[in-house]
């Protein structure tokens, strides 16, 4: 059987969700009124119901994120919401909290959020055996690790391929609580990773001042789709439930085109996961919507720097260098790409991220609203593309249509129109009318075909029309239009009604969890989650960070990102060029908040601890076995 390959787009709201479907998404993920990890992207059950109907028309799916950790007093409300979501036809839930697996649920499909420790074959296989139909893999995995997981279990695998990256292992960042008592696992991330920090060494010397030392570039794995499919991924996820409609349409369209090109050359093994085809009135380019510069993260293992320390704001599209500075503007390489109203991004003479908006371009001089002196050679990016945004925001910039065949024939009492769509759904509408011969020798067939082909704003495009008449009957164009409208309107209802939703009833199991002791990073915050883990053989369960934070001494993040590597001071990968070792402990400081950095070189991870934590630091050469331990 052919494997379906899916593009999964974010939906901040109903409008953006529909736009994502029109742009070619095979599925969207959307927040409910509660319990989603983006409190600024909630939607009413009524809007989700409308989203479901629209998506199902194209055989696309709707997944609802119920991915916060739950407290005991929320369990009943959460269960009630899940029943409502099931009743309106939602295809699946994306969950972090294992309490949901312990509830008495309707037969709704459950996916494991990337926040559920999905980093190794044992954990992923456990979740599959517990009843999860899909697992959203950790972003930090490389192709070999993805392949290893795929070989260990036949669960569906979803992987992020575009958008912002959490610098921390997902679900294991507690900086937001420690820095201001807002829980990322409860939907209120304060994005402490995007703040500027000073980096101070063990002697008290400031190595780097006021830089965004934990801010990393955005993800772009669009060139890796074939490799990821080969490794076992079936769903490609775009991050961005808080992003604007231009970002959603542009990124979805770009990936749709990439994936379609692959599918066309691999029809024997793979197929598109939904119906219809999209017609574009713009050329999608990912660097023309919000981005901080791009990285492939660790999918091809650690090989390049991934930080974007100048700014957490959008960098956008590379334009060129400043060639000359005039009294009121600049001569810039490739200036012909720019338009009035565009936003420019550059690093100023102080090494800070800066910007300006174009007022006008006269001859070849780019004149900003506010002139800022820039050195010749400054690299210019465009982070707001006024013309592109205007074009993509239009409703007709991406239009999705389902292919149909129409057959117009006679009946004893008049005529009938049969429609069959690309998925085999069909509908017939009859028109009872007296048959009158046309008072011309000219065939009426071309005119009938011409008017049957006018599908207008319907979600259909006519690929084939046959008209079979025994005589050259006269037919008013209004009647032809009427029967066409009726047959297509009814087909919409038929497609939605005949949509097949996969259902799955969770049955409680007792197979052993891969570990017996859970620390706070497993985010256990209620009695049902505790019961779930205990039934699966876990003997010790630490409370979630939110329930037992000891201010000043906690580990607030674990990450594959490494400040030493970014500085060229990695004893494993940059040994020959690193020069003198840094004096530890290294400290990050932002205002009153201070964090110590601890480097675990064997697993190639960095930990961030609060300032009063008592830590033992082991020399990196000893960790890696280059020298014997003292």
TrEMBL record:
Listed InterPro entries: Pept_U32_collagenase (IPR020988), Peptidase_U32 (IPR001539), RNA/ubiquinone_mod_enzymes (IPR051454)
Protein name as annotated: 23S rRNA 5-hydroxycytidine synthase
Pfam family, one: Peptidase_U32
Domain Peptidase U32 collagenase: 380-495
Lineage summary: Bacteria, Pseudomonadati, Bacteroidota, Cytophagia, Cytophagales
